[in-house]
Design a protein that fits this description.
The chain has one domain: Heat Shock Protein 90, CATH 3.30.565.10. The protein is globular, with a radius of gyration of 15 Å. Helix content is 35%, strand content 30%. A six-stranded antiparallel beta sheet has the order 1-2-3-4-6-5. Strand 5 and strand 6 form a beta hairpin.
């Protein structure tokens, strides 16, 4: 499994006088992709805490679960690589995922007897904002999770 990651402070945020920390990673969609994305997310959030950008343990768990669900869907339904971008804004953790499948995910209705297929229900329950945009070669999903529970 290949992974390339970078961490950067966004120049536009710094110029506007607000702090924003971001990091990105690319995954090939193969075995181990979901675990690697969770570790990347955990490391990103821990690094943010070390820089004084506190994220509560509950929010960190929620963000890791959202990343797991989105990357699982990408690995399962979108052939090829996916890109994950994490950004810490003043009031939210923003998760952005690009994959090669142009079809938007469809949340299913609640069904306690259904085994599996609950990922989008979980994501929508945990986030404040959910957006899907079709792009050339696939789609972009962006989710905002409030930094304060």
């Amino acid at each position: 499994m290949s992974q390339v990651s970078t961490v950067a402070v966004r120049a536009d945020a710094a110029q506007a006088g607000r702090s924003s920390r971001s990091a990105g990673a690319a995954y090939d969609g193969g075995p181990g992709t979901v675990g690697a994305a969770r570790r990347f997310t955990t490391s990103f959030l821990a690094g943010a805490d070390g820089e004084g950008c506190l994220v509560s343990p509950r929010v960190a768990d929620d963000v890791c679960l959202i990343v797991s669900e989105l990357v699982t869907n990408a690995a399962k339904y979108a052939p090829g690589p996916c890109l994950l971008d994490l950004e810490l804004t003043e009031d939210a953790v923003r998760v952005t995922l690009w994959d090669t499948e142009p079809v938007a995910p469809v949340p299913r209705g609640a069904d306690a007897h259904r085994i599996g297929q609950h990922g989008m229900e979980i994501v929508l329950a945990l986030c404040r904002r959910f957006e899907v945009e079709r792009q050339s070669g696939g789609k972009r999903i962006q989710v905002d999770v409030p930094r304060q529970p």
